[in-house]
Specification:
Helix content is 72%, strand content 3%. The protein is mostly helical.
Length: 121
């Protein structure tokens, strides 16, 4: 999307430069050596310039919005990655604690005569 916005803005600038360099009078509009039909007044040439300017702004806005969206997505992804790392470290600590408790429980002498498995029926 960023590339598309830049291409749109560059194309509008190229058209605008073509209009500027090809026009010798203020009442006709030539783009890249081709006469644009229906343009006979200075106001119509001005409106053409406004349209080209609107395309430049639209292209730049498209690029900016795309960059903002990708930045927001990267920030969210970074936050999710940090959350996952925190939860993994918490789980590792809990696992180590449980392993220590299990090792301690296995090494402690049993005083009761409780069978390890329930009797078969």
């Amino acid at each position: 999307m960023v590339f598309l916005g830049i291409v749109l803005a560059a194309a509008a600038v190229a058209v605008g430069m073509g209009i500027i360099t090809a026009n010798s009078s203020s009442a006709s509009l030539n783009v890249f050596g081709q006469h644009v039909p229906g343009v006979h007044t200075t106001a119509q040439v001005f409106i053409g310039g406004v349209i080209v300017g609107a395309f430049v702004i639209a292209g730049l806005a498209l690029s900016l919005l795309s960059l903002l969206r990708s930045t927001r997505a990267r920030r969210e992804f970074r936050g999710l990655r940090e959350e996952r790392e925190e939860s993994m470290s918490t789980l590792v600590r809990k696992n180590q604690q449980l392993q220590q408790e299990l090792a301690h429980a296995r090494s402690a002498p049993t005083t009761s005569e409780v069978p390890a498995y329930p009797p078969a029926r």
